[in-house]
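In response to reviewer comment 3 from the previous cycle, which asked for concrete evidence that the modeling workflow produces usable outputs, we include below a single protein chain processed end to end. The sequence was submitted unchanged, and the resulting structure tokens are shown without manual editing.
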Amino acid sequence: MPVFHAPDGTPLAYHAVGDGAPLICLPGGPMRASAYLGDLGGVSKHRRLILLDLRGTGDSAAPADPASYRCDRQVGDVEALRRHLGLDRVDLLAHSAAGDLALLYAARHPERIRSLLLITARARALGIPFTLEHRREAMALRAAEPWYAHARPAGEAVWAGTATDAEWDAAGPFQYGRWDAAARAHAAAEVEQFHEEAAALYASDGAFDPAAARAAVAALDAPVLILAGELDGGPRPRVARTVAQCFRRAEVAVQPGAGHYPWVDDPAAFAGTVSGFLERETGRVS
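The workflow returned the following structure tokens.
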């Protein structure tokens, strides 16, 4: 397990999976250990995945200053990883809440981005919210599912911020395109991968300056892939298209039948989209 040091001295770990040119991968949560990313549905057959455990998660150490869990203060960790790997520019993939971290990194270090891949990713850093109405719209798409009647009240509690542990579990099916054995196994590992204290601080006051971030990424001269799940509430496909408008060179891919974890729902489709984008835009997949 390779280790490097953040600017404040915190030892940070990452896991390398697969072969090929490196693809740095930032996990969401927020502040979830990178293990849940797995091999991203087989993307590791085309790229060497560099799965970063954010500070205080997985095999990375907790920082001396808990305030450094704030998203903008972790940008330096990503830059330290780039330097540790000896890369002039990076292909950077971010899932879910890590979209904010990747956006802030791209805004602060645009010259270091070769390509940016935002996978069902948040965009609070750009001032684009994912609302309760978006979540309800996505939940309504699942009304024919046998689990819907039980899961819907739990989903409402989750998005209202009042959910118990049991309600979080009951709402789990909304995060996946199919509530099958693969989805259940993936969801079952979720709880132990989170750092709750860090998650509470990740988007705390001062983390985001949307106007400044928008201005910075508008000038980004790098290709951007924004991948949304057809059934996901964060982001809904139309919101992903709004995010894409913030960039010069962005494309949107909507994975049919997918929820918030598209590599679990259809590994082949996900890996094909991601590796195809990288091959087309960077020419270095294997």
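The chain has a mean pLDDT of 96. We consider this sufficient to address the reviewer's concern, and the full set will be provided in the supplementary archive.
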